Amino acid sequence: MTPAPEAGTPAPASDARAPEPSPLVLPRPPARRARSRTYTLVVRALGPVGLLVLWWAASTTGALTPDVLASPAQVLDAVGELWGNGQLPDALATSLTRSGIGLVIGLVTGLTLGVVTGFTRLGDELLDSSLQTLRTIPFLSLVPLFMVWFGINETAKILLIAVATTFPMYVSTAGGVRDTDRRLVEAMRAFGLGRLAIVRQVVLPGALPSLLAGLRLSMTLSVIALIAAEEINATEGIGYLMAQAQSYARTDVLAVCILVYGLLGLTADVLVRGLERVLMPWRTAGPGGGGAR
Fold first, then answer.
1. d(CA 111, CA 210)
2. pTM for this model (two decimals)
3. Which of 38, 206, 226, 244 has the highest CB neighbour number within 10 Å of its CB?
4. Which helix (H) or strand (E) holds 143?
């Protein structure tokens, strides 16, 4: 038997050492490869280029006849013809003026109503139910009524575009204003800020994502409403060119007008995206520099 250690004698040190705690490892977010601007543009262009190739192939093989739709070459010739005689620049300037004036009226009206109903309880109780009811009425159904009220002049066309663009801006603004942090609003009131100052310095900046979403929808609808407005006995504009081309079965000119409307909508979307990058750079400054888009 092993003798017991005497009292007061220190116990022998054990050979087994306690395991040391492993050092903490910082989590690493998944790395994302930055995409170059050229790569993004090429990928975005694949869809339109593919459609153009299919259009050209169908026209070349005879599957698509000129009485159904003109070929890309014929459409380019029509663009040169309309631009050379001044019809396309004049029509484009007229249509942009109509769309721009109607859009500005709609944006200002929708923004004002959205702030009033979203920020004040009285405004919400007085206006919101009526505006939501009017929002459900298709703006195309107002064309005959506007013709009776305002005739076939520019007023009817501009107001139709204004009505179409008011409600997307109103809904987005009201929702964004309601989502503003009420504690922040109360804190600003405690510092002595008035209602207008709170709206300008707190509410509108906080609702900026919703405002830009409403702006994008309104700008897109302004082009759609422009097409409908220019059906009201227009004597100028892209719609007038389409009516003339329809009378003479000019599918090349019809294709030009349709492409112009499409480019107007695309330009509006690009402008809003650029505005988002300027006003909200954090949305596109994610890992890899590309954000979620």
1. 11
2. 0.76
3. 226
4. helix 143-150
